[in-house]
Design brief:
- The protein has 94 residues and is mainly α.
- The chain has a single domain, classed as 434 Repressor (Amino-terminal Domain).
- The termini are far apart.
- This is Helix-turn-helix domain-containing protein.
- It comes from Microvirgula aerodenitrificans.
- GO terms for molecular function: DNA binding.
- InterPro entries: Bact_Cytoskel_RodZ, Cro/C1-type_HTH, Lambda_DNA-bd_dom_sf.
Length: 94
């Protein structure tokens, strides 16, 4: 199993590659997400020392992936185990 640091680095790299492929700048992404450029750069670099707690990082990752149209939910479900966050569970209708 990956460490949380490895997971953040891998997801951050995927998001950076998608951003560059779509020709967005850090400034454009930061403005669209209402985040600082340094926080987006830290996520892309996998620098946990410059990121908030994991639960907030998950939200940032979800917002960023949605902005870019990148599917990373499966990666986050694996990462959720690090902070006791359970993935959504489908409840059968009665």
């Amino acid at each position: 199993m990956q460490t949380q640091s490895e997971l953040v680095a891998r997801i951050g790299n995927q998001l950076r590659e998608a951003r560059e492929q779509q020709r967005y700048t850090l400034a454009q992404v930061a403005a669209a997400m209402h985040r600082s450029q340094s926080q987006i750069a830290a996520l892309e670099a996998g620098d946990e020392t410059r990121l908030p707690e994991w639960v907030y990082v998950v939200g940032i990752i979800r917002s960023y992936s949605k902005l870019l149209g990148v599917e990373i939910e499966a990666c986050l479900r694996v990462g959720d185990a690090y902070d006791g966050i359970a993935p959504p569970v489908a409840v059968p209708e009665e």
